[in-house]
Amino acid sequence: MPKCFVVMGFGKKTDYPTGRVLDLDKSYRYIIKPAAEAAGYECVRADEIQHAGNINVPMYQQLLNADVVIADVSTYNPNAFYELGVRHALKPYTTITIAEDKLVFPFDVGQIAIRTYRHMGEGIDFGEVERMRSELEKAIRIVGEQAACDSPVYTFLRDLRPPALAKAEVERALAASAPADSAPQPTIRTLMDQADAAIDKSDFITAKSLLAIVRTMMPMDSYVAQRLALATYKSKLPNPEAALNEAAVILETLAPATSTDTETLGLYGAVHKLLWDATGVPAHLDRAIWAHEKGLYVKNDYYNGINLAFLLNVRSALSGSEPAEAIADFVTARRIRRRVLALCQTLLDATPVPQGPDRYWIKATIAEAHAGVGDDTRAKELLEDAKAQPGVASWMIRSTEERLEKLREILTKSPMPRIGPSSGA
C-alpha cells in the first residue's frame, strides 16, 4: 500500500494571529486520515510512528520516501513549515499543502497551491468535514497519478535532481539511531491517548508518568507541557505544595509573561491560586489575578474570566482596611461575570454545538457566574443541568462543587453586602 505522511501539529494549538485555539487532532481524524485511506493510502502522522531511538530519523525518512505528504500549516506551526520546506527540497512532486481558512500565508508560500478548510476552533462543522475530505481525497488521487511538480524548489531550479537513498542506507541510518538491543517505543499518539484516558479516570499519577515520557520525545511542544503541568499539580505528589511548584516550573518554560495562549495563562493562574491557598504568600495571589486578567482581556476567554472574578472576590474579602479597593474588586467581579455569561451563551449558540467536557465547563461556568451575582437557586439548577452532560468525569463535578462552596464562603466574608441578581451593581 502506498504511504501518506502527514506534517502538522497535534492536540490543541493556539493560532496566535487570531487568538483561536484549534483542535488539530480533529482535522487529522475527521478529514486528513479518512481522505488518505479512501484514496488507497496508508496514512501516518509523526506521533503515530513506531520507532526506537531518535524520532527525527524516521520522520526525515518519511519526508523523503512517502508517496504523498500532506502538510497542514494551520496556526503558523514552525515545525510544519520547516518540514514542508524539507519535503519541497527532497521531492519535486506529490506534496499537498492545506490550512484552515483564516491563516494569512507568508510571501514565500504565496505561489504554492494551498487548499483551505474552515475550522471552528474546538470542532469542525460536519458539512465542512464532508466537503474537505472529498476534495482532499481527489487531490491525493490526482497527485499520486500525475506526479506534476508542486515544489517551488524544483520549479525555479529546473536542473536540480532529487536525492535518493538506497534501502541499505536507510536501514543503516535507522539502526544507528537506536541503542543496541532497543525495542521500538510506543508511539507518541499511544502514550497521549493513554495519558488522556488516565486523566479522565482521575489517575493523575499515571498520566504524569506517561506525559513525562512524551515530553522527552517532544520537549518543545506546548500542548504536551500544558497537559504535563495539569497532571503534575493534580497528582499532589510528593505533596500538594511540591506538586504545584513543579507544575509552576513546567509552565515557566512556556513564557507566560509574553504568552497569549489562554491555556497556558489559565493553568498558570490556577497553579498560583492554589499556591496562594497553600502558603498565603500574596505574590501567588497577584500572579494568579494577573494571569487570568490577561487571558480574559487578550483573548476574551470565559475560563480565565470566571477565575478572575473569583480571585477579585478573594482579594475584596482581604481588603477590609481598604474599603475603596474592596468595593472596586467586588463590583468589577460582578461586571466580569456578566461578561462571562454573554461569552458562554455565544459558545452554546455556536455551530457546531460544544459537546462532552467542553459543554460541561461552559454550563458549569454559567452556574458559577449566577452564584457569584447572588442567584443561588438558578446556580443550583444550572449545575444539575451541567452534570447531566455526557462524558463528564467525576473530578470535573467535584472540582466545580468545591469551587462553588468556596465562592459562597468568600462572599459571606466580603465587606460588601450580598446583592440580589436583579440589583444593578
What can you see in these coordinates?
- With 425 residues, the chain is an alpha/beta fold.
- The protein is built from 17 helices and seven strands.
- The chain has helices spanning 24-38, 56-65, 78-90, 126-146, 152-156, 167-177, 188-200, 204-217, 222-235, 240-252, 262-279, 282-299, 302-318, 323-348, 356-372, 376-387, 394-413; strands at residues 3-7, 12-15, 20-23, 42-45, 68-72, 95-100, 114-117.
- It has a five-stranded parallel β-sheet, with helices on both faces. Strands 2-3 form a two-stranded antiparallel ribbon.
- Strand 5 (68-72), helix 3 and strand 6 form a beta-alpha-beta unit.
- Helix 13 runs parallel beside helix 17 (394-413).
- It is elongated.
- The N and C termini lie far apart (67 Å).
- The model has no long low-confidence stretch (mean pLDDT 88).
Largest sheet: 5 strands, parallel
Q: pLDDT average, as an integer?
A: 88
Using DSSP, what is the number of strands?
A: 7
Question: What strand order characterises the main sheet?
Answer: 4-1-5-6-7
Distance, first to last CA: 67 Å
Q: Spans with pLDDT under 50 lasting ≥5 residues?
A: none
Rg of Cα set: 25 Å
| Shape, per Cα inertia axes | elongated
Helix content: 55-70%
Based on secondary structure, the structural category is: alpha/beta
Number of helices: 17
N to C succession of SSEs? EEEHEHEHEEHHHHHHHHHHHHHH
- Proportion in β-strands: 5-15%
